[in-house]
Amino acid sequence: MRRRPAALTAAAALVGALALAGCSDSGSAKAELSVSGPYMPQPVSADMAAGFLTVANKGGAEDTLTSVSSDVAGQVTMHSTMGGAMQEQSSFAIPAHGQLVFKSGGNHLMFEKLKHQPKQGQTVTVKLTFAKSGPLTVEMPVKSATYNPSTGH
Ligand code: CU
Fold first, then answer.
1. Three-class SS string for the chain?
2. From ligand 1's centre to the CA of 131, what distance in Å?
3. Distance 86 CA to ligand 1 centre (A)
């Protein structure tokens, strides 16, 4: 029968200990943010538009969306929807290993003081600013006024 060399066993134990230490080291955990599914329904109003997207966080630490801006709007505000009534929010949390969803009927972005009225087929540039992570710039396509992302129409 072969015996395992003692040095190898000790090395394996050490690697195991390091892996465990890495897992529990929350001090170095960071948010890892990415944006998916951005779109703006073509606005019916000349001065206001809505926008939707999802911010995913693959990292082990929470981050916070603190502001949004766009080249087409004088101001972009963030709203939640509760019981059919929308309410402006100054920030939205993005949980560790979670996501922040802006979708029709729920949280949404409001593009106010439009510089021009975005048309279907165009793209608007949206910049997201976070408490800890660097800003993300998103090219948001303008879809039909009745676009539904689950059907793609
Ligand atoms: Cu709103």
1. CCCCCHHHHHHHHHHHHHHHHHHHCHHHCCCCEEEEEEEEECCCCCCEEEEEEEEEECCCCCEEEEEEEECCEEEEEEEEEECCEEEEECCEEECCCCEEEECCCCCEEEEEEECCCCCCCCEEEEEEEECCCCCEEEEEEEECCCCCCCCCC
2. 22
3. 5
**For domain 33-143, which architecture applies?**
Sandwich (2.60)
pLDDT tens-place string over residues 43-70: 999 999 999 999 999 999 999 999 999 9
Report, as an integer, the average pLDDT of 108-123.
97
Q: Where are the domains of the chain?
A: 33-143
Q: Using the mean position of ligand 1's atoms as its centre, give its distance from the Cα of residue 110 in Å.
A: 6
